[in-house]
Write a structure and sequence with these properties.
Blueprint (H helix, E strand, L loop, with lengths): L1 E2 L1 E7 L2 E7 L4 E5 L6 H13 L18 E9 L4 E9 L4 E5 L2 E2 L2 H5 L4 E5 L10 H15 L3 H20 L5 H40 L5 E6 L9 H14 L1 H7 L10 E6 L2 E2 H4 L2 H23 L4 E5 L7 H10 L6 E5 L7 H5 L1 E7 L2 E2 L1
Parallel strand pairs: 4-14, 4-15, 9-13, 13-14
Antiparallel strand pairs: 1-5, 2-3, 2-5, 5-6, 6-7, 7-8, 10-11, 11-12, 15-16
Bound molecules: adenosine-5'-triphosphate and magnesium ion.
């Protein structure tokens, strides 16, 4: 799939932009703070209804404006689809697919993107919550029902936490929550394990090539699991862990076990990458992961997602830059941002549509 165009009205500092995106490769060049990331963020937003930078969508509205609009015509294998997002200061949101009002689920099913931005390069350095978020976002792009499962689980978890914080704790009610948590949570863990297995298989190969034969392993780190499990086993083990740690949870007034506490561990030649890998080695892992995400989405949906590369080329050395650019198959629409063109080979620049951005305007 590809975007034919993109229209922004009062999207952050982009007051009014219309971009013709009828090209395979698009390069957006601009100095710092001109709006490059904002443009990629808006495309990512159309595909997920989430910003990679904030959970408060009010921030997307231009400081001086009352509402924001993002529109795009998406060319898919079977049809062209027009997406329109509208949101205002009163928190009224309107989602339209082909001019008809629609649900978030329907809206998000249209466009697939893979975003690779500089903060992603710190994935291995960051907190477990960063890694869980990366994983959850990647999974939602291939299993649309995953988002709903996550929010269902979160709802139960919040209710349970409220109970744990209250003065009087009804243990019968706590056990009811625990039972619900084990069922909802095991689905999440099961899908995470499944996705990680898939991504590990693909990422290992890519990683081996870029690193010249280092071995990558990915492991889901969950306190009550050790090994591959089916959903019923996960649910049973989760329920047992909740029962076992019930007194601790009551004492601490919070949930201590479950997918909200898990982590993803990366190993290079059997040593834990978060602790021991160099910055370059960690970046290689992230690059391999991102390219694998792209491949998994293509496999699962039968269409190429749109690839968004925010400033990452400047952060990679020549070998990794080349690997990345050469790995992008011809049909994959790619929107790249950069402060200048020096990182790109002449051959690459010949086939690229270049836009310059200055103070939120295309010049
Ligand atoms: P860099 O090269 O440093 O990454 P960039 O071109 O990617 O820069 P953006 O992150 O897109 O820059 O941000 C551009 C500008 O948008 C920033 O100066 C920021 O202050 C401004 N901005 C962010 N949100 C809003 C908003 N709601 N209204 C107006 N301006 C905003
Ligand atoms: Mg930026």
């Amino acid at each position: 799939m590809r975007l034919k165009n993109l229209t922004l009205k009062n999207y952050r500092n982009c007051k009014s932009i219309t971009l013709d995106l009828g090209f395979d490769k698009i390069l957006i060049i601009g100095k710092n703070a001109q709006g490059k990331t904002n443009i990629l963020e808006s495309v990512y937003f159309l595909s997920t209804l989430k910003s990679p930078r904030t959970s408060n969508n009010q921030e997307l509205i231009n400081f001086d404006a009352q509402s924001v609009e993002v529109r795009s015509d998406v060319v898919k294998a079977d049809a062209d689809v027009e997406l329109a997002f509208f949101y205002n200061r009163e928190k009224t949101r309107e989602l339209r697919v082909n001019t008809l009002k629609t649900t978030p689920k329907n809206f998000k099913s249209v466009l697939r993107t893979v975003l690779f931005a500089t903060p992603d390069l710190l994935l291995l350095r960051g907190n477990p919550s960063d890694r869980r978020e990366w994983l959850d976002r990647a999974i939602s792009q291939v299993y649309p029902a995953y988002d709903e499962r996550l929010s269902k689980y979160d709802k139960i978890r919040i209710q349970k936490n409220n109970l744990l914080k209250s003065d009087y704790i009804d243990e019968t009610l706590l056990r009811v929550y625990n039972e619900q948590m084990a069922i909802a949570g095991s689905n999440i863990i099961f899908l995470r394990l499944k996705f990680l297995k898939e991504i590990e298989r693909i990422a290992r190969e890519k990683h081996k090539i870029i690193s010249e034969s280092e071995e990558l392993k990915i492991q889901y780190d969950c306190s009550f699991l050790n090994g591959e499990e089916d959903v019923e086993t996960i649910s049973r083990l989760f329920a047992a862990a909740l029962e076992e740690r019930m007194n601790e949870e009551i004492r601490r007034g919070q949930s201590c076990v479950g997918p909200q506490r898990d982590d993803i561990l990366f190993y290079i030649n059997d040593s834990e990458a978060t602790k021991f890998a160099s910055q370059g080695q960690q970046r290689t892992v992230v690059l391999a992961l991102k390219l694998s995400e792209l491949e998994i989405i293509t496999d699962k949906t039968g269409e190429n997602p749109v690839l968004l590369l925010d400033d990452v080329l400047a952060e990679l050395d020549d070998i990794r830059q080349n690997f990345l650019l050469k790995s992008i198959k011809p049909g994959v629409q790619t929107i790249i941002t950069s402060v200048d063109t020096i990182h790109f080979e002449e051959e690459f620049l010949r086939d690229v549509k270049i836009y310059n951005i200055e103070q939120g305007q295309i010049s």
